[in-house]
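Researcher: Please generate the 3D structure of the following complex. Treat every line as part of one assembly.
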Amino acid sequence: MRLSRRQFLKSSAVLGLGAAMAPTIFDGAATAVASEPGGAGLDRRTLILVQMAGGNDGLNTVVPYSDGRYYDLRPNVALSGSDVIPLDGHVAFHPSMGPFKELWDEGALAVVEGVGYANPPFSHFQAMDIWRTADPEGKGPYGWLGPYLDAARDDTQSPFLGLAVGRRLPLELMSPTVAVPVVESVSSYRVLTTRLAPEAAALRTHALASLYRQAPRTMPHTGLLDSTLAAARASSDDLREAEEAYTPAVEYPSSRLADGLKILAEAIDGGLGVRVGHVSLGGFDTHAGQQRAHERLLETLSQALRAFFLDLKAHGRDRDVLVMTWTEFGRRARANASGGTDHGSATPMFLLGTPVRGGLYGQRPSLSNLDDGNLRFTTDFRSVYTTVLEDWLGIPADAVFGRQRFERLPFLAAL
Amino acid sequence: MAGASALGLSAGAAAAFANPLAVSANAIARREPRLASRAAWPAGAHAATVSDDVPVPLHAFPDSATARISHLLRRAGFGETAAVRDRFARLGVEGAVDHLLDYERIDDSALDKRLASLAFDTAKPRDLMRWWLVRMVHTQRPFLEKIVLFWHGLLTSGFQKVGQGPQMFNQNELFRDHAVDRYGVLLKAVSRDPAMLSWLDSRSNRKSAPNENFARELMELFTMGPGNYTERDVRESARAFTGWGLREKSFFFRAGQHDYGVKQFLGRSGRFDGDGIIDIVLEQPAASWYIARRLFEFFAYDGPSDETIAPFATTLRESGFSIKATVRRILTSDEFFSGRAYRAKIKGPAELVAGAFRTLGLETDGRGLDGLIGAMGQTLFLPPDVAGWPGGSSWINSTTLLHRVNFAHHLSSAVRRQLQQQLPRARVEAYRADRQARIEGMIALLLDGELAPDQRRVLDEFIQQAEGGTKRHGVRQEADLLSNVDYLILASPDYQLA
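Model: Done. Output below.
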């Protein structure tokens, strides 16, 4: 038996997570539930995760351009103070982030500085697993959004509770009960039956599904294969219909990230019930020759997200969508001799959309008080997750963190 | 886009499909279904389990010689036609393993001729992928291509950073040259390989500010795994590789950029260079365990216990990290032929596609196959990141599974036309008599004759309904029916498993 989200809200004890935190779960999340339908109804709310894979160089993204130590640490990689886009007298965006500056000016972009956690590993994979599971060990088979998807399953039979764009299912969307479709292109997303008469096609596809259902569960992977085929079949028709019905209101730039965001916009506009979407932009592992690569990446990111935001706005769905970026780590404060930067620690996160209260959050990491060459984090990433879970998705964070409690940040507008 | 050309099938190449195959009467192994115990998860989440990280109870390895030899040929290669499989079966497991591993003795000049006639431009990503896929399908040395696939995943590099040119081809040939060598020899060659030097930034590693990328991945991904060294070890060993670089696309040591100072590394102290670092790393017990585990998981099954790995780690150490000796021991072990291993791995896209062509005896010039495996999540020479392809359950999601199922549609459609030409005009009763033999042959060839009773019933019902659904049953209808059964076998969950 599963719990509805409301039961889930009321009774964290049932989840084996202890009742000690019960009072705290009602202060934010429960009021958000109670105040429906002010702002977006919970069941219309969508979280879009944008992964900046490889470890984004935060210092060259949100640039402490008035700090002389920045230029001392990275003579070959520092951005010129006259090129960057100032947000205030201390920090500035990378010169290629003009579209983010527009969002900033509209109050639709929040920057959380210095995000990280204690004792970070410097391996891409360990660090990614930690962000994806929200577990400091990076262990565990499910993602930090697993409990949310699991609870949301009660509200709807939609096969699109989660929707990942790309070729891989990201760990953060793995849950024990919700199969998340992974879509790379809508046109090829179907079971082909070309040449077959309709009745023959139906018969064959039915037999195929039965072969999957009847595969012996004594072998590993047969359960996964069965549920994945079922999810693919259930979602493919809906997705194509949504695509046919949808006309983008803006011209998306030409990039894979933009193509992916467009698929997410189609699904949101088509009312497919997407609660969590995921899309990824890779290439941030800039160990060498960073300048040009990083410039292109940040341009791709900010252009694509700006287009996505304007498209949602034109379709009247911008109030329902919160975008969150993440990356597995920032990069070393001091540049290396290859015109690049090695793996580091703390890094900024972006939250973007109409629900956001724009501005700077968290505390800027010091460039003089480094930890073995790395920035010391000032905001635990689980604080950001807690805010998103409780104030946006409306589930208590203890479903993910148990008794451990992380401070919420005020980056969401009063809803 | 269905059809022969989309799959790079040569004209008339699909004949193997149409020939009724000898029936092998393997009884389905009895598998006692038992309840799977699921990992702990907040209460009440068991309705429709989709996770895949949970141990399942053991099922037995099928009691059948066909299953044993097919399992070996699938894991140590890409599967074989029934005729070749029977020849291997006569050698016995030990003999078959020798034949696979001692591949230098096997003449592969026919493959070289075939590749020469196809005139690939291996400096280009698409051509290089096709070149390799043709090798996998048509080589007489399948184990060599299989273990090169292992190295391409472990010691990976990709065009996205290395750029077009001969480097990726050369790296693949380097893996072929040292495929079953001592691991240290391979690793030292790889540390000087131009593609790797670009991929992990060694080429711009200067003593004034060492680049840690290669040093870190050497320990994390290539030899020990995380937890067996400190950040200080990373920084110190990066110094040892300073000055290693490229000149005119070849390895070049820039003495002026090398840090000749003393390094403190894994408890040792000395003026180590890169080779010295590799020697020290391979002396660590963690290295033999790590490599043994990676090999075992590639060939046998995921998540083995330490106890299972121990003998193979010992073989590695005692043989001076001989890859051949270790793989031989894995492929002849009881664990390899255990229920834990049988159909316990998901075929990777290259394995699935090259394996289908090879097992069915189909010819290919590689065209179309590159796009297929890319859509299934494995664009060779373009790994997703420095850890290669994660494999296992990550091969399966709704998009990649649809592409796998649709691959079966393309293959069976391409073959259908041959069927229609070859089938005699006959009464439905005569078709029925031949039909069963052909289907049994396909199940023997593609599924080792192992299909659960409930799944057989699904096939039988499908055949009945399909036959009953048409007014008249002639050549066209029989060809449809047989190709749809081919489709169901190739698209089945069991065929996705290795």
